[in-house]
Automatic annotation (TrEMBL):
This is Delta-aminolevulinic acid dehydratase. Its cofactor is Zn(2+). The keyword Nucleus does not apply. Catalyzes an early step in the biosynthesis of tetrapyrroles. Binds two molecules of 5-aminolevulinate per subunit, each at a distinct site, and catalyzes their condensation to form porphobilinogen. One of its GO terms (molecular function) is porphobilinogen synthase activity.
Length: 325
């Protein structure tokens, strides 16, 4: 006889099929959203130094990329643009023929079924590199709303399926929703970057988007990484203002925030597996220090287990290949 009674968990771990049967969380290709960086010019395919495997692509080369993404079964892309000119009013953000507007049209031409999500922000489009309108060293909230709403409407007009404001100005979801409705885009959902922290994990992205702030930082509008109750207030405001999706960004260091939002709200929840989360894994993998495939799958499964319904990730194409169709 055994000296004490205990439970035998290993009974359900004895074979691969048995483990499959009792698995609680599954990562699927349809959970993935792949970010793309569109740039002016032709024949441009420029690797982002701090993000191996991620490129700036000119519009003509986007077509082949979209073909590949579609063949892999990835349902959605998130579009960013590198503008030709930056000015104080962030004009190219809402120009009819701006880089993102052109990219949307090309993607839709290539595959009308692919879900096109656009990042709505001003930071890449003005020389100050801030997400709103700058005046005398201040990032102004209310004057930014009009430009953000204009940007969202111009994306919808070009054919975007979903607009995703990432600026963190207060009231932008309401402003965007109102403008979309006024322009008869009542069917276009808003995916709000509801809970976006002032994070060092965006470093490689800012190289990629040429969007690093020219002065100061983003701490007066992005959230303090130490706060989670504030995250619930931010998300609640977005729900009230008409958001259709909520997002937590970054993901890896904020798994508890993902879980809190999931337990509190019933909207689809998106996690953004951001640039430095990608770069850290790539760097270690290139050094032969980790098993990239196993690490990425474990990390993304963890995000789903934490409560993410969808994951924006630079690993999307690799993951789609690993998971098969
Ligand atoms: C634009 C924006 C950023 C990211 C997405 N949209 C950068 C920032 O806020 O500084 C970061 C994405 C990433 O790091 O992968 N505001």
């Amino acid at each position: 006889m055994l000296p004490i009674e205990f439970k035998r968990f290993r009974r359900l771990r004895r074979s691969a099929l048995l483990r499959d049967m009792v698995r609680e969380t599954e990562l699927n290709i349809k959970d993935l959203i792949y970010p793309l960086f569109a740039t002016h010019g032709t024949g441009v395919k420029e690797e982002i130094a701090s993000m191996p495997g991620v490129y700036h692509l000119s519009i003509d080369l986007l077509k082949r990329e979209i073909e590949e993404i579609s063949e892999l079964g990835i349902p959605a892309v998130l579009l960013f643009g590198i503008p030709a000119v930056k000015d104080e009013l962030s004009s190219e953000a809402y120009a009819e023929n701006g880089i993102v507007q052109q990219a949307i049209r090309v993607v839709k031409e290539e595959n009308p079924n692919l879900v096109v999500i656009t990042d709505v922000c001003l930071c890449s489009y003005n020389p100050m590199g801030h997400c709103g309108v700058v005046h005398e060293g201040e990032i102004l909230n209310d004057p930014s709303l009009e430009l953000l709403a204009k940007t969202a409407v111009s994306h919808a007009r070009a054919g975007a399926d979903i607009v995703a404001p990432s600026d963190m100005m207060d009231g932008r979801v309401a402003a965007i929703r109102r403008s979309l409705d006024q322009e008869n885009f009542t069917h276009v959902p808003v995916m709000s970057y509801s809970v976006k922290y002032a994070s060092a994990f965006y470093g490689p992205f800012r190289d990629a988007a040429h969007s690093a702030p020219s002065f100061g930082d983003r701490k007066t509008y992005q959230m303090d990484p130490a706060n989670v109750r504030e995250a619930l207030r931010e998300a609640a405001a977005d729900v009230e203002e008409g958001a259709d999706f909520l997002m937590v960004k970054p993901a890896l260091a904020y798994m508890d925030v993902i879980r809190r939002l999931k337990d509190t709200f019933d909207l689809p929840l998106v996690a953004y597996n951001v640039s430095a989360e990608y770069s850290m894994i790539k760097a270690a993998a290139l050094n032969g220090w980790i098993d990239e495939k196993q690490i990425v799958l474990e990390m993304l499964t963890g995000m789903k287990r934490a409560g993410a319904d969808l994951i924006i990730t630079y690993h999307a194409k690799d993951v789609a290949r690993w998971l098969g169709k």
